[in-house]
Amino acid sequence: MYTHHRSRLATGLLVATALLGAACSDATSSDPASSNPTSSISSAPLFSKSGNGSSGGVAGFSVLANAAVTCTGGSISGDVGTFQTAPPGAITLTEGCLISGAQDIGGAAAKAAYQSFLDQYAALAPKVGDVCPVITGTLAGQSLSPGVYCVSSEAKTGVLTLSGGSNATWLIKVPSGALTGTNFSVVLASGAQACNVTWWVDAAATMTTSAFNGNILAGAGITGTGGTFNGNAWAGAAGVGDVTFTGTAVVGCGSGSSKGHDKCDNDKGKGKDKDNDKGKGKDKDKDKDGCKDKDKDKDKDKCNQGVGNGPEGCDPGNSNNRHGSNDEDGGTPGNPGRKGGH
Question: Where are the domains of the chain?
Answer without folding.
Answer: 2-251
